[in-house]
Each structure stands twice: as structure tokens, then as C-alpha cells.
């Protein structure tokens, strides 16, 4: 046992600097064969007992040690595992070199399912971290903006801006001239443009509180 642990740690150290060392010391008599065949959902994978036992708590390690898992074998002696072979490649490669490498079309969720089935803790953590990062970048997409144009007179302007409901932001003021003129009272009309950032899908719009200022559906055309 001690010799095997020394060999494994030495191989891992060398693996870390990019060197590969093949151990050709023949195992003592009575130890199980070095090579293991797995038939995953009809696809055969060939690997070593040492690779499968990199993660001691994994299903694969227990399988090839023959503990409490009496797995069926096919006619070639390969262990039969009823799982999707598509996602088994990255699992096996992770046990070989400690990195998660995926083809661009391969869903991380699929590999996560298999990593959880085979109980490979470090890989589960790596994939969950990557999925969280992806979720984070998705939420960083700039929100949509909704614009509204409100028409009001000069004296209503201050009140309207101060009573704007949460989330609405003042964007622009357009002077559209005087609407009426009684003696000295020259009331200037304004179009007030406000905007709101929308993080939710458009369906949430219906629950928007109605604005306190009067909103006229049609804009006055000014000459």
C-alpha cells in the first residue's frame, strides 16, 4: 500500500509539471489487473485502476476494487454501467489529468449529472463554479429600457418629477410652446421623457403602478 501511495504522489508531482512517467513495475502476485474495461451505455472505455481510484470516494473506485458492488460484466469482461457515454469522456479525462475539458457543444449540466452519479466531489465543485460564473455573466447583460412621454404644464413639472414612482428616471424635457395665453399668464407646455430599466420579462409591465401625472396617449404634433 505504502509503495503504491508513494508512486501515485510521485506521478502526480511529475504530472503537475507536464511530465508523464509510466510505471512498469509489475504488481505483486494476487493483485487485480492494472487495466479496467468499462462498458458505459454500450461504449467501451479502457482505463487503469489507478485512474479510477484517483477519487477514493467515487463509485468508479469502489467498482474496480470490487467492494460491495457486484456489477454485471459483458462478454468481454467489461463492467456494465447504464449511463450516457457522451458525458463519461470528460469524467474519465478529469480523473486522468484533473482538468475539465468539454467540447463546445457539450452541456456542463450533463457532465454535472454524471459527476454526481459517480460521486466525484472535486469535479462537482468545478462544474458548479463554472455554472455560477455563467449565470453571473448572463445577469450582467444590460437591462432593457422602457420610455414614456408625459405632457404637462410648467407649473406641474416640479410636482410630476417629485412624484415619479420608483425606478423611473427623468431623461429629457422638450418645450412645445404655449398652449394658451390669458393676459400675463403664459403657460408653457412641456413633454417630459422618462425611462425605466427593465430586468424582468415584459409580462411584468402590466403590474406597473400607473403614473400620477396625466399621460396623453397621442403626442401633439408641433410645427
From TrEMBL:
GO BP: positive regulation of cilium assembly; proteasome-mediated ubiquitin-dependent protein catabolic process; protein homooligomerization
Region (Disordered): 203-223
Pfam families reported in the protein's UniProt record: BTB_2
Origin superkingdom: Eukaryota
InterPro entries: BTB/POZ_dom, SKP1/BTB/POZ_sf, T1-type_BTB
Species for this entry: Corythaixoides concolor
GO annotation, cellular component aspect: Cul3-RING ubiquitin ligase complex; cytoplasm
PANTHER family hit by this protein: BTB_POZ DOMAIN-CONTAINING PROTEIN KCTD17 (PTHR14958:SF24), POTASSIUM CHANNEL TETRAMERISATION DOMAIN CONTAINING PROTEIN (PTHR14958)
Gene3D superfamilies named in the record: 3.30.70.2000, 6.10.140.750, Potassium Channel Kv1.1, Chain A (3.30.710.10)
Domain BTB, residue spans: 34-135
Record protein name field: KCD17 protein
GO molecular function, one term: cullin family protein binding
Amino acid at each position: 500500500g505504502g509503495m503504491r501511495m508513494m508512486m501515485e504522489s510521485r506521478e502526480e508531482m511529475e504530472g503537475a509539471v507536464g511530465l508523464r512517467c509510466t510505471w512498469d513495475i509489475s504488481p505483486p502476485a494476487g493483485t487485480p489487473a492494472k487495466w479496467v474495461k468499462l462498458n458505459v451505455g454500450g461504449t467501451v472505455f479502457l482505463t487503469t485502476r489507478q485512474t479510477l481510484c484517483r477519487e477514493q470516494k467515487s463509485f468508479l473506485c469502489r467498482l474496480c476494487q470490487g467492494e460491495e458492488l457486484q456489477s454485471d460484466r459483458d462478454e468481454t469482461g467489461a463492467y456494465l454501467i447504464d449511463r450516457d457515454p457522451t458525458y463519461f469522456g470528460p469524467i474519465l479525462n478529469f480523473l486522468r489529468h484533473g482538468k475539465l475539458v468539454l467540447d463546445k457543444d457539450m452541456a456542463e449540466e450533463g457532465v454535472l449529472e454524471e459527476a454526481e452519479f459517480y460521486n466525484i466531489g472535486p469535479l462537482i465543485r468545478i462544474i458548479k463554479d463554472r455554472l455560477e460564473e455563467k449565470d453571473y455573466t448572463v445577469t450582467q447583460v444590460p437591462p432593457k429600457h422602457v420610455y414614456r412621454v408625459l405632457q404637462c404644464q410648467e407649473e406641474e413639472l416640479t410636482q410630476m418629477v417629485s412624484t415619479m414612482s420608483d425606478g423611473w428616471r427623468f431623461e429629457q424635457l422638450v418645450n412645445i410652446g404655449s398652449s394658451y395665453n390669458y393676459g400675463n399668464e403664459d403657460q408653457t407646455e412641456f413633454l417630459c421623457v422618462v425611462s425605466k430599466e427593465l430586468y424582468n420579462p415584459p409580462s411584468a409591465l402590466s403590474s406597473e403602478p400607473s403614473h400620477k401625472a396625466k399621460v396623453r396617449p397621442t403626442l401633439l404634433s408641433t410645427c
